[in-house]
Amino acid sequence: MKPAPSLASSCLAFLAATPAAFAQGSLEVVVPDAWATTQAASNNNWPFNFPNSGVGRYQQVYAAADFAGAGVSFPIQITELAFRPGQATPAGSYQLPGRDLTLTIALSETAAGPDLLSTTFASNPSTTPATVYAGTLTLPTVAAFPGPGPHPWSWFVPLQTPFFYDGSADLLLEVAVTGLVITGPSGSAPLDAVNTAGDPVSRIFHNSNPSAVTGFSDSLGLITRFSYDAGGFSTFGSGCPGSGGFVPAIGSVGGPPMLGNLGFAVTLSGAPGGSPGSFVLGASTTSWIGIPLPWELLPFGAPGCFLLASADVIVPITTSGAGPGAGTSALGIPIPPIPSLAGASAHMQWVILDLALGHPVVSDGATATLF
Question: What is the rounded CA–CA span in Å between residue 141 and residue 154?
């Protein structure tokens, strides 16, 4: 069933008009998480300070399990990388000299975990690497910080193209530096890193050739802060049975609710066929026009059936199919690539009139968060 564009537009207008009600903002996670609030004992100049004119090729793996262990709920969309200066002495950090780097940065997934990277660069990605930054990256001069740290995040890489990461495999970062212009004081630029076998990071590198086929491997890895938007489609609560004992169910098709996904749709299955009903979309799962949620639909003769989401937007539908449990529907909600919608979320549910029973039945609820 293909809904009229105006119906989908009403859903998007609802999200766009009230982003403050839903915005969760960009989230952050440090990998390895064990060093999130502690300065590590090692330093790593590469890939932003290669010797031999500053060019080279670098790959680093980050264990997906460490993201999850730090509380990340997949899938996510990575939007920025950040790094902090390494420790020079117990009294303070290294200074980071400013530089303009000509480089390409890519992210992908890998089946080769930490300490298991192949020394052949092309063997490590298990998905097609996605270029997330290409061109000139300007990194500022950062004066040394006093004390034992952890020192502030000081060098940032805002991704030109955010990277969708579902956590099903480890994450692989690749940096190919083809040019370097020093804009600040001369000297090395050590960044905070950890060099422990069996931890969540390791690397391979070639320190003079950005097109190198093979490199050298070790356990060293940059401590990295990832900024990300969390999103996805998840269900909650439960529906109630209609004729024949069938319980309507909410779902989605067309991929996750990502910005720019024009094929996203919310689906209904297991409903009474050929029946009128509504798709409801709302900002709350706790109240609607002063009524606490969940709200049992007793005034409509439907004990055990609960409204789970506030009905701020109501889209009328008629299920396809015929007979108990054979009813389906779908509402296409194309998501435009509008950055201001990132982090917006809404709750939804299907409410169907079961003509045989003479009262409404409902699906479980769902929350969609755009990212």
Answer: 9
Task: Note whether 125 and 110 are within 8 A (CB).
Answer: yes
**Cα–Cα dist 60/288, whole Å:** 48
- In the numeric block, the tokens 């006093």 are attached to 146
pLDDT score recorded for residue 24:
47
Q: Please state the domain extents for the chain.
A: 5-23+231-369, 33-222
Taking a C-beta distance cutoff of 8 angstroms, is the pair 35, 223 a contact? yes
The C-alpha atoms of residue 35 and residue 193 are separated, in whole angstroms, by 9
State pLDDT tens for residues 217-231.
999 999 999 999 877
pTM score, whole prediction: 0.75
Q: Which two tokens stand for residue 224?
A: 């990295």
Q: Is 82 left (phi over 0), alpha (psi -120 to 50) or beta?
A: beta
HEC-encoded secondary structure of 199-246: CCEEEEEECCCCCCCECEEECEEECEEEEEEECEEEEECCCCCCHHHC
Phi–psi pair at 193, nearest 5 degrees? -150, 165
What does the block give as tokens for 90? 């117990």
Question: Beta 56-62 vs 76-83: how paired, if at all?
Answer: unpaired
CB 94 within 8 A of CB 87: yes
Fold of 5-23+231-369: Immunoglobulin-like (2.60.40)
The pLDDT tens digits of the residues spanning 10-51 come to 565 665 555 434 444 578 999 999 999 999 989 999 999 998
- Report helix, strand or coil for 112: coil
Interval 338-367: pLDDT, tens: 877 877 889 999 999 999 999 999 999 999
pLDDT at 12: 57
